[in-house]
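@channel sequence for tomorrow's demo:
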Amino acid sequence: MARELDKAYVPTRYPNAHPDGAPFEFYTPQDAERLISYAREIIEFCKGTLSRSQS
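structure tokens (generated this afternoon):
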């Protein structure tokens, strides 16, 4: 999940990252939902890890 998020980081943030168009032309709403879901899962994993390390 982190690798896929990493691949999308620059091209989705910068309008000139794609030489042939704007980022919105390369990503679908389904792509966005999938990546958001990955980010949420990673955040929850990190929260769990941090809370266990503080115990």
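heads up for whoever presents: Residues 29-53 form the longest helix (25 residues).
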